[in-house]
Every structure is written in C-alpha cells, then in structure tokens.
Amino acid sequence: MTTTTSGTKQVFICGSALKGQPDHKNLQSAKFIKDTKTKPQYRLHAAENGWHPAIYSVETGGISIPGEIYEMTEEQYEYLLANEPPHMYPETVNLEGDETAIAMLYPQELVEKYNWEDISHLGGWTAYKAINSR
C-alpha cells in the first residue's frame, strides 16, 4: 500500500467519487493532491449497467485512466472502503511519473461474465457519464 510518512494513504480516484460525481461525498474531507492518470496498463468498463466503473489491469491493450489523487486518513480510507460496491478491492496502481497509489479495482472475471461495456475508448469515467446523462 502507498502510505505516506504521516500515516495517511495516497488514493487514486477515477470513478463515481471524482469531483462532481455523486459519490464524491464518500471521500469526506480527504485532501485533494492532484489530477493524474494511470500508466496505460488498465481497462475501464461500465459495471452494473453504468452504476459504477470496473477497472482491472492488463498486460497488453491497456489505456491510461484519468483520475485524482487524495490523501486520506485511515478513518477516511476505511469509510471509503465500506461504501464501495460489492466485489471491488484495493490494489496498488501504477501512475504516470513512476508514482503509485491505492485504487479500487474490479475482478476481470466478473466483467467478462456479465459482458459489461468496455468504455476505455471514451477516456475516463467522467467522459462516459457526460455522454450517458444526456
């Protein structure tokens, strides 16, 4: 896990908890650090008919997923975990600039089982929601 010297965690947010998205409140008062994106090692799907993103790592054919880094206390992090959809799990992701952070990933097997839409080509969760909220 990516933990800072102050005992807080660096968490990469790239879905429904981004600024302007409905679950942003789940971050509570976590400190926004910066906008960033992953290295091109991930795929992004719209799980549960667009209810939340499903991200997983791939060895080939990945994209860079845009998102935000937040610094969270242990309490804020535990609250975020408790409010994530079922099956999501924390995992370290590789970010641009050779940085890492914790992100919530989703099992690729479930994405494939339910054949959820691959939205990787749209450039991120915010772009997907903008297109699908018209």
Instruction: Give me the CATH fold name.
Output: Hypothetical upf0131 protein ytfp
Question: From N to C, what is the helix and strand string?
Answer: EEEEEHEEHEH
SS element count, helices? 3
Briefly, what CATH class?
Alpha Beta
CATH superfamily: Gamma-glutamyl cyclotransferase-like
Whole-number count of domains: 1
Low-pLDDT stretches are none
The CATH architecture is Roll
Please name the defining characteristics of this protein.
134 residues, Hypothetical upf0131 protein ytfp, 3-stranded antiparallel beta sheet, 8 strands, 17% helix, globular
Task: Describe, in plain words, how this protein is organized in 3D.
The protein is α+β, with helices and mostly antiparallel strands. It has a single domain, classed as Gamma-glutamyl cyclotransferase-like (Hypothetical upf0131 protein ytfp, Roll), CATH 3.10.490. 17% of the residues lie in helices and 35% in strands. The chain contains three helices and eight strands, in the order E-E-E-E-E-H-E-E-H-E-H. The protein has helices at 74-82, 108-114, 125-131; strands at 9-13, 31-37, 42-47, 52-57, 66-72, 89-95, 99-105, 117-118. Strands 1-5-2 form a three-stranded antiparallel beta sheet. Strands 4-3-8 form a three-stranded antiparallel beta sheet, with no helix packed on it. Strands 6-7 form a two-stranded antiparallel sheet. 33% of the residues are buried. The model has no long low-confidence stretch (mean pLDDT 93).
